[in-house]
Input
Amino acid sequence: MPTLDFWLEYASTYSYLAAARIGPLAREAGVTVRWRPFLLGPIFQAHGWNSSPFNIYPAKGRYMWRDMERLCASLDLPLTRPARFPQNSILAARVALIGFDEGWGEDFSHAVYSAEFAESRDIGETGTITEILGTLGRDAGHVLEQAQAAENKARLRGQTEEAQRLGIFGAPSFTTADGELFWGNDRLETALAWTDK
Output
């Protein structure tokens, strides 16, 4: 089966939507999805931004939140604007790498997005991630120890550096085996169709 790389950021609103949609659409298209958590912070800093463009440009931010309201309503997804945006997603991304190694990464990802964008919980807090791991039946202490190990931290840095090398500048993004880059939740179907041709 052809494979599509799905580059997601846990602080990203539109990644929340793409994560909710990609599974059924990929199965229908006959495409295998490889979930690739990464961090947008270093990429934004390389562009000279100290925050999300949705914060730097208020008009763009207002539009994004209204767009999210419309899209979430159409997908029957809950949406509650987090008290702080963007949230610190480093711990969630580190834990996700362990989860994808062990086969529970997708469930963890959905739970993180739900905590952040449906329940307005802070995914940067260890307590939030610990509770999520508990609901998934995972030994939170063991997983957090693995996630914070130097080797795993280096893996996340490497994955973020790979995203930069591929020209990724936002999330969600999708890359194909032949080197095509598609950016945005609204390009998911196009990316899947390209991958399957």
